[in-house]
Amino acid sequence: MHLRASRAALPVGVFLLGLCMSGWFAWLLHREISIDAASQFHRLSGRTAAENESRFNKPLYSLKGAQGVFTTAAQR
Known about the structure:
Elements: H1 2-75
């Protein structure tokens, strides 16, 4: 009976070691993917905010240019 238990101990130990290592590597991979996704989100959100600001400011630039034309024409 004791021989049978010792024969089963090695495969069970190898299985448990493999299970723990697989879980650890899965956690590391998940962490790396989460960090990459967060940095990509922050980069894209900053880019989107800058693009929105640029789009809202473009009509103001043309209005200020038109104001300058009228100011120059009125001074003549």
